Amino acid sequence: MTKRITLIGMMILVVIGLKATNSKQQKHIERARDGQHIIIAPEEFLIQANQLADFYWNQFQIARTVVDQQDIFDQMSGGIEDPEAIRNYLIEFFDDPSIWMDSSVLLMGSGTEDWNTPSDKNRIVVMGYTDDEFVMLDTDNYPDVPIGRFPAQNIEQLELIINRNIQYISNPTLDWWRNKMLIVADDEHKGGILEGLTPISGLNHTARAQELTETLSDAAWIDRVLGIEYEMNTNGNKPEAAQDVIDNVNEGRLIWHYIGHGNEDVLGDEEYFRASTQLQLLQNVDHLPLFTAASGRVGDFSSLEFDCMAEQFLTYEDGGAIATIAPRMPTSGGANCMLFLAFFQNIVDDYQYLGAALLDAKINSGAGIINSKFYMILGDPLLFVNPPQRDENITIAGNPETIFYNDDISVFGQLPTDDYSQCEFKAFESEYDCYYSNTLNGYFYEVDYTRFGEPYFEEENIITGDYYETSFTVTSGIQTGEEARMISYVYSDENDFVQYKYPITISDGTSSPDLPELPSSLIASNHPNPFNPSTTIAYSLPDDGLIELKIFNTKGQLVKTLVDGEQPAGSYEIVWSGKDYNEKSVSSGIYFYKLSTKDETVLKKMLMLK
User: Fold this and answer.
1) Which of 71, 86, 318, 535 is deepest in the core (most CB within 10 A)?
2) Cis amide prior to 503 (ω within 30 degrees)
3) In which band, very low, low, confident or very high, does the pLDDT at 329 lie, cut at 50, 70 and 90?
4) Which of 387, 410, 432 is the last residue of a domain?
């Protein structure tokens, strides 16, 4: 009874303190509330099934109906254990096609093709080559409702999976890992021949990894382990690549995606990961990724004798994955690419829950439904696996698009609320172009790709109200280019958020024309700062001449011109009332005042607090 008490205790805790959801997730939560949701379980798993259903009601007010598999057989097939009975039951259960996409089915238990053989693996029947066949509710050969499966063979495994899901939702480890993704791509070798952009196969795993990287949000920190960059040992393996995969996963990644060849136990002929020998090296229980594999048979859970990699990830006590999406059958590389481009857009950009994101990709990606139906979710289809909500409100003082070696720059972040207390800021070098080529057995292989820039400045900051700031010197010798970025991960006890700025050009010049140094002859300050509703800007002019004093917001937009004309040398004060050209009060946030003469410029920031 110990584990059941622990599960119930966790449910009580989450009712007391619920983790906030972002607005995009909330949209899909509200849609899911209007859907129909069912958990089908064998009799021995009904207690746990009801506990998960209760959790979702307490957490999201999403109702999940729990049904005994045997009751379905009794009602629909005279007690005979027939998978077609489950589909017929679901056809009656989902009687409103307008809400199918917002609904879900969770099969709670493992199952094999050898259903008549007594085994702990035979808990919930399988149907054909994909669980999608259970939710083909009309005649168009497409799945109609999101579906997933917990491949648990016993109560201990089931409670481990459920406890992890509850922890993942209600008390996640808030850290950078939630904004980091790992893409692993197979190399060009296959069975002693060259595989790539050749007449042999037309595949190119590195190019597909590049395409996916370019599709994902510019706010995400994306690491890649590319097989082409590693040396092969005498056994035909790439152990350094395998170690980098393990290190990345243990460090923490929201998503771990593999592109290439694979089977139930191993990723790639070069063994980028082998579950039977390397699963024990994963120690990532506090930051479980969504594992996805654009490969073949990595998710074939239906064998009586063997637990596939995707199954083991869910039931491995010291780590693994929170959910997996992988195929039961061999698949097509081109179709896989189309499917996952659409799926990750749904996850990263639209913040859909797992089942809806995959079903939408299967239907609308153009990937081909036969290939797409091989892919199944081992995990809860109602789980949200999304990065933190984000915006682009990082501002470099003066709003320069180009920064130079040895520049002293100041960076400001304006947050949408004051709900956050800590900020971890990172400035990254520019992405840079790479080229690889190889010739084998008369075939020539080449691929262009990019590498993500490394952080060259990192700092932890305390957030004041709803803003933060930092200053640093741009390091000489870092990677130049037009695709640098800055990312801030901000968080509190229950919430996190990401801000970013991209693209930024890094040049090896000596100074930035967009941010002149403060000259000793032109002086400006304002008081009070922060202010509400007005502030006084004081400035001194060393010479007679044309003068401009203008107010800008963090987007570089002109808010108001306070002075524009000739003034004699001397000291001046002018009050800004906190209003724009239309005499409308501005919102809270960071503003800049820019004092300019013919020869000199001063740019300073101020903060309006309401």
Assistant:
1) 86
2) yes
3) very high
4) 387
